[in-house]
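User: Round two. Same drill as before: sequence, then structure, for each protein.

Assistant: Same drill it is. First protein:
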Amino acid sequence: MHIAILMGTYQGARYLPLQLDSIARQTGVDWSLWVSDDGSTDATRQVVADFARDQPGGRVHLLDGPRRGFAANFLSLLCNPAIQADAWALADQDDVWHTGKLARAGGWLAGLGPDRPGLYTARTRLVDARGQAIGLSPPAPRTPGFAHALVQNIASGNTMMINAAARALLCAAPGPAVPLHDWWCYQLISGAGGAVCFDPQPCLDYRQHDANQIGQGRGWQYQLQRIQRLWAGGHQRQLDAHLQALAARRASLTPDHACQLDAVLAARRRHGLGRAAGYWRARVRRRTRLSQLALYLAALLDRA
């Protein structure tokens, strides 16, 4: 199996060498690395060039990103027709992959039929800016899938790998303007009836620092921060953009999932109790009971 690693970079020189070293230590698979740099002015591009010189010829590729934000950068890589492989793995610039990450994800994808879209994602070990362990990312809901993906993302992009059928699905139409590329992958692949694996075994060290585009967390404090963000309306703006993108790709969804999307869209045209009741009838769910309750309360105030 050949796996194309897709890495979006921007001002990443500080931590990038450790990430590249962890990629070089992957075993059991054949890989190539495709780096899309979104206009870095630090030493990011030089770090990549130095790494490329130490790898077999043609294994590392450095591209110019679209400069429209991190989501557009990753989606441009996913849909780049020059990047041919059996599977595609997304990579952040500042993590450290555990040995065997690619082989574990690739093994699961290889067990799927060639026509079924597949998405692998996993838990992560959280580390601080110095690389010291501070805990684990939250566990998955009992049944990851479209009912969950409609209102919350649990598929962290830095752990994600997809197969050819999933890539074809994602790239079948012009890329939607979505704020979160990983949430979009989770939504569309699960909505189309694809298989989603959330591996409970951590696959990388997810570095938490001030420059994170999107961070993670653990415990009640992290859950409280997510609920506060839901209450403040940030989740609502992202949700609006993603639901519009899903509506544009409604024909790609299974009939049941298309009806579920319609129910959520109908709920969002209501206000207060009608919106909260619409979410309940649509049977959408978030990761925890507390977060689910926060969704209903926010809907009552038209904040979700």
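Second protein:
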Amino acid sequence: MSFTTIKCVILLLVLRLLDLAPEITQPLNYPEMATTKKKESNVPIPLDYHAVKKASLILRSVNHKLRQQIIQLINENGQMTVTEIYVKLRLEQSVASQHLAILRRSNIVKTTREGKFIWYTVNHDRLQEVNEFVTQLLA
């Protein structure tokens, strides 16, 4: 029995255990594999994969220890610049900016430009939406 045949058999067994494999219509005959018949399902999957990916990015943006510290720090101070944030947290400026960019893309923080300064504030409405979503997800 070749290595490829063994890999196919193992994959088929694992998929069968997970109930993802098609049903076998013939006994296994080595070195040829049995023909298979796919399980039929008439129920469409009503899942917007783009929205799921977007939601996972938003949840990932909040699920990071440093970003949680940044959110907490901005919340305690009302509004802060990137300079104030990286000085208080003892970070490199580039690290603080990268994490703030992630929070900004997921709309967790809002920005206001005043001259050459960009002020960051916490978007409490967005955090409330995320909290409600997580609560519903876990219910």
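Helices lie at 3-17, 49-62, 65-77, 82-89, 93-105, 124-138.

User: Perfect.
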